[in-house]
Amino acid sequence: MSTTDRGRVVRERLLAAAVDLIAERGWTAVTTRVLAERAGVTPGLVHYHFASLSRLLAEAGVGVVRDALVGIRAAFDAADTPLRIIRVLLDAMDGLDEADVASPVFSETYLAAVRDPALRAQVTALLSDFVSTLTERFALAGVPDAAGTAAVVTATMDGLILHRSLTAPPDRATTERVLTRLIAPEATT
Question: Disulfide: which of 6, 48, 60, 73 matches 18 by Cβ 3.0-4.6 Å?
Answer without folding.
Answer: 60
